[in-house]
Structures are given as structure tokens and as C-alpha cells.
Amino acid sequence: MTTLALIGSGHIGSTVARLAVAAGMDVVLSNSRGPETLKELVDELGGHATAVTAQEAAEAGDLLVVSVPLKAYRSIPAGPLAGRTVLETLNYYPERDGHIAELDAGTVTSSELVQRHLAGAHVVKAFNNIFFRHLHDLARPSGAPDRSALPVAGDDPAAKARAAELLDALGWDTVDAGPLADSWRFQPGTPAYGLPYLTRPDAALAEDPGAPAPAAKIREALDAAVRG
Fold first, then answer.
1. d(Cα 222, Cα 12) in Å, to the nearest integer?
2. Which of 155, 227, 158, 162 is nearest to 191 (CA)?
3. Whole-model pTM?
4. CA triplet 82, 83, 89: central angle to 5 degrees?
5. Phi-psi region for residue 222, left (φ > 0), alpha (ψ -120 to 50) or beta?
6. What is the rounded CA–CA span in Å between residue 132 and residue 166?
């Protein structure tokens, strides 16, 4: 049985955990406040879930999902993740993270910063462009006619293939957006960020029930992105 470890268990992390348990996986959860603060989520998920420290989560799991604020990316334990596939959901919000000169200048992407910190790992950008409720509610079995897709970016083809396998198990098709240098195509403010999953483009994320977004729709949104 596949074990999925999560560093960060907020809206996206906990949603990924719920989808993983529904798919028959074991999940290992962690956050910055300690395992005891995850008791309610672990109780909800049942016997397939355990809570540990971030360090312990980094040492566990066949796959890792990191979902923390970008400003905390240097706190991710790097040593245990060497050689591992790490899916990261981090987005840059200057009002929350503070200004990061390289990102403001567009010389690197947030995913490249994470990869630089996790130098020995194989980083894949995923789960960052969708509202957490849509991530849960739009998941569909493989082959479903109304199945949606999520973009991923990464520099290692094998890691992207493993990420695609995970997304498939969780109920999602995958669109390859290219290397980490191209992950800006689905960062905040681009056509692929949130909008493809709305019933109408002017809908509020928290109020919209979500609409299927097949791979062709995601590809179109990625191609429409303009940097800067």
C-alpha cells in the first residue's frame, strides 16, 4: 500500500490527505504546530492516518507533498528528502510572504527556489492552482467523462511520471506544463490559476461549486499565460 507523507496540513494538504485515504493510501501528516494539533483530522481520516513531526514526515512515505507558506520554505527538512520525489504546492503572495527580490524580478520561479533548497530531491509543482474545495469535489475516477486535470511542472521526467500516477489515483488527469522554470504559467494571476475550475469567470472561489476542467482547457490556459 502506498504511503503519502505531507509536510503542511492546511486546506490543500488536508484535502490531498482526504483524497489519498479515499483512494486506499496511508497518510502521514505533519504541520508546524506539532502532531497533537492534528488529532481532529487524524480522527476524521481514521486508521489510515497518523500525525508526526515534519522531520518524521520527511523520513516517511513513498511520496511527499509539501504544502506550507512560501516564506517557510527554508524550514522544509532537506536532508531526508534527497533522492525523493517531492510535490510542492507553494505560491508566492508578497502580502503574506514578504517581497522576495528574485521572484519580483522574475529571474526564478517559486518552485526553483524550493528546488534550490531541496537540492537532492526531485521537485514537482502540483496542486497550487486550484481552490481546495474544487480539488476535493471535482475528483473523478479514471475514465470518467467529466474528469478534470491539474498542471504539473518539474525538471525530472521520472518524478513527473510518479506525480501523474499519484494524481490519477486521487481522481485527476495531468497536464505537463514543462520544467520548473515554466511553473509561472500556473502561478497566481495567470489564466490557469483557479479560473478553469469555475462555473463562470467572475464567480467567487469560495462560493462557486466548481466545474470540470479537462486537460484541453488547462492546456489552453497555460498557453495563454503572459509573464510579468
1. 21
2. 227
3. 0.96
4. 75
5. alpha
6. 17
Element housing 40 (H / E): helix 39-45
| Cell, residue 69 | 507558506
**Cβ–Cβ under 8 Å, residues 71 and 10:** no
* Three-state secondary structure string covering 136-167: HHCCCCCCCCCCCEEEEEECCHHHHHHHHHHH
Q: What is the pLDDT of residues 57-74, one digit of tens each?
A: 999 978 999 999 999 999
Q: Is 15 exposed, middle or buried (0-12, 13-18, 19+ CB in 10 A)?
A: buried
Q: How far is CA 175 from CA 4, 52, 76, 78, 152, in A?
A: 21, 32, 26, 27, 6
- CA separation for the pair 184, 33 (Å, rounded): 30
Distance of CA 108 to CAs 28, 53, 100, Å? Answer: 31, 30, 10
Question: Grid coordinates representing 84?
Answer: 525523493
Give the count of alpha carbons within 13 A of 75, CB side only. Answer: 16
Model confidence pLDDT, tens digit, residues 137-160: 999 999 999 999 999 999 999 999
Q: Which helix (H) or strand (E) holds 4?
A: strand 3-7
